[in-house]
Task: structure prediction
Amino acid sequence: MSISSINTKKMFGTFFEEAEFPVPASKAWALLGTLEIGKAVSGKLLEAVDVVEGDGGVGTILKLTLKPGYGFSSYNEKFTKVDNENMVKEAEVVEGGYLDIGFTLYRIRFEIKKNPNDDTGSSCIVKLTTEYEVKEEAAANASLVTNEPLLGIMSVAKEHLLKSG
Result:
């Protein structure tokens, strides 16, 4: 069989949500750019978030245990980018979960920017993005990717930041 006859077609997709947070960018980053967000969503959006290895920097691996109804019970994600200066963090699924159902990439990115409409610096813009690639033969599974997890993370993060004053 020649290489050219191998089916390598994939579907790509991106979802994003953006919201204004009523806290300075540095405060939002202290939650979303660290392991703290895992603690905040554990027991709320997810059953558990466990650190497999690492300290929150690039290479950190987390095991996310999902609540029933997702189609899989857990997966591991690895922090592939933690840019403290630009306040950008990326994590990719590296084991289980989406990879077990035909995805070749499932990445979440957190980006925090100063609010351009706020001269006081008391609020910021948080953008959460999900990017994915799925093999053509598993294309139907792309429907499992929604913006609901992003909305959930935003809601929990806002609530956590407001409570922590």
About this structure: The chain has a mean pLDDT of 89. The two ends are 63 Å apart (CA to CA). Residues 57 and 82 are 6 Å apart (CA to CA).
